[in-house]
Amino acid sequence: MTMPTITPAFADVTASDSTLRRFLHGLPGVDAVGLEARAASLGTRSIKTTAKAYAIDLAISMIDLTTLEGADTPGKVRALAAKALRPDPTDRTTPATAAVCVYPDMAETAVAALAGSDVKVASVATAFPAGRASLAVKLADTRDAVAAGADEIDMVIDRGAFLAGHYLKVYEEIRAVKEAAGAARLKVIFETGELSTYDNIRRASWLGMIGGADFIKTSTGKVGVNATPANTLLLLEAVRDFRAQTGVQIGVKPAGGIRTSKDAVKFLVLVNETVGADWLDNHWFRFGASSLLNDLLMQRQKLATGRYSGPDYVTVD
């Protein structure tokens, strides 16, 4: 199997389990108090009306509108695709979302519903959300999604292997999935709530980027602790430092638990202050969310009309 090219700077690092472990454990330790204080401080910044309107539209354009439930049906996916294309049917100036995110068996339905648009189809794969399957199954899952037309693949790492220190196994799985994804962009999910420490989140971020991730992503949205300002700040610092070292830009996707416009704006401030305007675009930053869009639409109408709409203004997902 021909693997994707390794970034030359990391060829020696990935030569063996021991060299990879030495590199990851040689990364600077995370000052947890300082990290959380900076994330909290940036979250208190207020923005004025014009900037707020811009931020709301930007946030809408960055959403991977998501349904990942056992009860998903083709009808639900088509309805979600329609909402992604035209979030507010009464206002054509409302931007479309970045993508619709579904399970692999729903990717073909989403592709058909979004045909001719710029809205991408993202599909979770690799035995999402637990990742407890053989590599062969994970690769088949990925290939099925790509064959169905998915533009993007959201994979989960093997947290058990990572926490056991089997970093090379995790790295090799990421590279294999990257190859199976072909032209589809690869988002690598760490499930930060299960990694226990900020040091582990930093190590996972670098492992994902070295392995070929196009995006690094906090969470599946299926555990108790998902995206937080602090863990997202860590991912942003990682992609900033990776680009400084390699010249390669990697995207970031916080997912799970981001439900309000206020939350979304806080994350955009983190992006602006940590990595700058180069990442303030849906090619490089996404929100994984299902209910966030509704609140953004409500706040958008409030800015436009001075009042909140009635309960029927947005669809209930």
Q: Going across the major beta sheet, what is the strand order? A: 7-6-5-4-3-2-1-8
Strand content: 5-15%
Q: Average pLDDT across residues?
A: 94
Specify the structural class. Answer: alpha/beta
Q: Over all CA atoms, what is the radius of gyration? A: 19 Å
User: What's the β-strand tally?
Assistant: 8
Largest sheet, in brief, is: 8 strands, parallel
| Low-pLDDT runs | none
Helix content: 40-55%
**What overall geometry do the principal axes of the alpha carbons give?**
globular
Counted by DSSP, the helix tally is 12
Order of helices and strands: HHHEHEHEHEHHEHEHEHEH
Distance from first to last alpha carbon: 42 Å
Map the helices and strands:
Blueprint: H1 17-25, H2 32-43, H3 49-61, E1 63-66, H4 74-85, E2 99-102, H5 107-113, E3 120-124, H6 135-147, E4 152-156, H7 159-163, H8 167-181, E5 185-189, H9 198-211, E6 215-217, H10 229-246, E7 251-253, H11 261-274, E8 287-289, H12 292-305
Parallel strand pairs: 1-2, 1-8, 2-3, 3-4, 4-5, 5-6, 6-7
